[in-house]
Amino acid sequence: MKKLVIFDLDGTLVNTIADLADSVNYALQTLGYPAQPYEKFPYFVGNGIYKLIERALPPESRDEQTIRAVKAVFMDYYMLHNTDKSTVYDGVGELLRALAGKGVALAVASNKVHEATVAMIARLFPGIGFACVLGQRDGVPTKPNPAIVAEILQTASATPSETLYVGDSGVDMQTAHNAGITAVGVTWGLRPVEELRQNAADIIIDSPMELLEYL
User: Fold this and answer.
1) Which of 21, 48, 151, 194 has a beta carbon 3.0–4.6 Å from 111's, enabling a disulfide?
2) Do 103 and 47 belong together in one domain?
3) Which domain range does residue 59 map to?
């Protein structure tokens, strides 16, 4: 029986792509840059806000000063609008309640900015207790560096062998392997299943409740 399950957020627990796209496009257009089509955003996300904005900018405008300026406008807008269109994936709430009912600790490790991560979990999962919710913070490396996972393990008093890591992207699978944790890939997220296979997912599931089989 596993003691802890760590979840990625975007593309794993919540479909956030519309709010991310709207917020990035708002920032881009506010500063005079062209908006990007929605279909590009699943391939922009996954490595934190800085990389998201860098990828969304025209190649000739991806300098440090411009990225920081767009990020500032993005953050002001996104903190007010990050759950306008975001929805919890079908079956995720049921899974979280089932895990909690079995005494399994729940945690979130996201490359989304920490403040937005905490706010989104509080808004979309009221009444579900998480042992630890961490997003991207200054001075802490983003995934696939395992630093955020190591912090969660310490907080939850769990070992890698007692833990599952669940995510929808290659970055998530790399994070799990870097931390010495079983990597569970989900097919309902933002990235194709082939990306999970290419990044050595230990387990691939097609619906949330399938996770219970691997505890």
Assistant:
1) 48
2) no
3) 17-81
